[in-house]
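Hi F.,

I've been meaning to write this up properly since the lab meeting, where we talked about keeping a consistent format for the predictions we share between groups. The idea is simple: the sequence comes first, exactly as it goes in, then the structure tokens exactly as they come out, then a line or two of notes. No screenshots and no reformatting. I'm using this chain as the first example so we have something concrete to point to.
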Amino acid sequence: MKRHKISFNNCILITAIILCIFVSSVGHCHEEDQDSVFQGLTDAMIDLSIRNLKDKDPGVRRKATHLLGETGSERAVNALITALKDEDKEVRQCAAIVLGTMKDYRAIRPLVDVMKNDKDYDVRTDAKVALVCITDPAFGVKGWILAFELDRAMRNEAAWVLGRMGDPQSVGPLITAFKDEDPYIRQRAEDAIVAIGARAIEPLLAALGDKTRDPEGRIYLTFSAVLVPVVTSKDARAVRPLSVALKREYPSYVRKSAAWGLGEIGDLFAIKVLSQSAQTDSDPHVAKAAKEALLKIPQTNIDEAGRSLLHDAALDGNGDAVDLLIAKGADVNLTYDGFTPLDFAAAKGHKGVAELLIRKGASVEGGRWVKPLHLAAAGGHKEMVNLLIAKGADVNARNSDGLTPLAAALSKGHKDIAEILVRKGANIVERLEIEIGKQELLLDSTGDRK
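Output, unedited:
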């Protein structure tokens, strides 16, 4: 009799699926009619499966669990959560796995309970796997935030998970827990924010900007706790938010901490904002901290290939960094792979940086392979070309390939640069050689020349 019942139920479900396929294949049916029929059949399948979860036969309950998962319907979630307490181990396992694939945050707390309390190791393992599936970054952050905000009993677990997931959008909800009456939850929330690391700095600063949110100073203490491991690891992701904190109207103790952090991280991009703070901050303690931070930033570091911080600063057009590095003894004519800092600045058209380097003793002859004027001409940087010529660059100098700046400009199609060079004394024969060379290449490519 029991076997007949299973067969009958399966026949109903199989018939429902066949009807769905049939309706979808009928061309003359309206799309709304098809959707309506599909929805009705799906609802019928869910109702039948939910009823079968109470069947005495565990095999029927297992199949019902699978089918509820196939529907993906929110209506199935509560029934599957109930199935986590089924007396049959395989039903509980199946319910846990299906809930993991459905990724509904309502299942988090029940799955945590199963993971902690179920007597069977395999069921506990499947519940843990399901939780990992639910906390996939594409969904999990929102799910755990909701669990943290809506379920007080889940706050400890949710805070721990949010910290490990490392998403900055969870910092705001975690900050709200600083007012929780349970000191353990408050500590868990702080630990979670610290675990997020550098990505937590920006939302923490946003909260610090609102003085009403931190009357007891807990947000600042958390900010300080985050800052220590971040600067110890020299995490460059913290440079931008800390620079913002130093420029804006944050409390002086926040600005002072930001200056300290920037100095410890030692990133060149912090030099400009630290220099401004050292000169203009209204609080002398903050200005002093900024000056001390500037002294901590590496000044003349050279890597194994011979590239210095001055090369990087020149390439980026960071005039403040160039000025500071030179003041601390950086060699303005140091070559890296045959290129000087002035070569880098000329190639990028950073005129202000080039002027500074030349003023501090950089040679307009550049490095081993090519001259700064060649690089500026090839890059089409008109102002840079004029500057270098004014500072004594030879308009007819040849690079390691025997080409002049005029050849470099013409090869890149910069006729305006070529005209400047000719007016400044560039050999016109070079221009003719280039044009003749182009014609020869054209003849070769068309097959007209033998």
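Notes:
Residues 95 and 229 are 41 Å apart (CA to CA).
Confidence is low (pLDDT under 50) at residues 1-8, 438-450.

If this format works for you, I'll send the rest the same way.

G.
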